[in-house]
Amino acid sequence: MPRIAAVPAPPLPPPPAAAPATGRRPPADPQKYRVEVRPSAIDGQGAFAGEAIPARRKIGEIRGESISVRTARQRAKGLQRIMIVEVSDRRAIDASASTDPLRYTNHSCRPNAVLRIRQGRVEIYAMRDVAPGEELTVDYGESHHEGRLTCRCGAMGCVGRL
Predict the structure, then answer these.
(1) pTM of structure
(2) 3-state DSSP: the chain helix, strand, coil percent, rounded to 5?
(3) What's the CA gap between 121 and 94, in Å, rounded?
(4) What distance in Å separates the CA atoms of residue 158 and residue 82, rounded to the nearest whole number?
(5) Rounded to whole angstroms, how far apart are CA atoms 40 and 53?
(6) What angle do CA 21, 96, 64 make, to 5 degrees?
(7) Taking Cα atoms as reference points, which of 26, 11, 32, 1 lies closest to residue 99?
(8) Could you tell me if 126 and 56 are in contact, meaning their C-beta atoms sit under 8 angstroms apart?
(9) How far apart are CA 92 and CA 71, in angstroms?
(10) How many Å separate Cα 139 from the centre of its chain?
(11) What are the C-alpha distances in Å from 30 to residues 19, 67, 109, 140?
(12) All domains of the chain, ordered by start, with CATH?
């Protein structure tokens, strides 16, 4: 299972500028459904469904800087919150500077979404129907906290540690 955790995030940057005169189009928006970032009862900021999301649908992706796992682990040392996902034994995605709202997806022991790694991309899919305004959550699985961080998801049956 990929390693993931959250970091306090800087304010969202403005949307990207129009395509340069080179004729290249800007990258496609990886978000398939509207996702809003706002304060979370779980931790810091959270990603919330901006519209109804049907079960088993791709919600979107988390993009970021592709770095080595070694660099990712160095960056994560000593931090309580990070936005890094290991996508293989050798590569990780650091979403700390990303504008993708799904990077604020918090952990829950009873998540409504699942994180999938496909061809080096970090994708999030709804596990069940998600109502507008509901916080999007995934089970982080193994994380750099190694069971030392108290889980605050509040879910029935919470395991208590990350």
Answers:
(1) 0.78
(2) 5, 30, 65
(3) 12
(4) 21
(5) 19
(6) 50
(7) 11
(8) yes
(9) 9
(10) 11
(11) 17, 20, 26, 21
(12) 35-138 (2.170.270.10)
pLDDT at 149: 77
Is the CB of residue 116 less than 8 Å from the CB of residue 102?
Answer: no
Spatial separation of the C-alpha atoms in residues 152 and 146, rounded to whole Å: 15
Closest Cα partner for 117 from 90, 139, 138, 88?
88
Phi, then psi, of 107 in degrees rounded to 5: -80, 145
Assign 135 to helix, strand or coil: strand
Quick: pLDDT tens for 80-129: 677 889 899 999 999 988 999 999 999 999 999 999 999 889 999 999 99
| Nearest CA-CA partner of 112 in 157, 54, 159, 73 | 54
The amino acid occupying position 149 is: L
Q: Could you count the other beta carbons within 10 Å of the beta carbon of residue 137?
A: 23
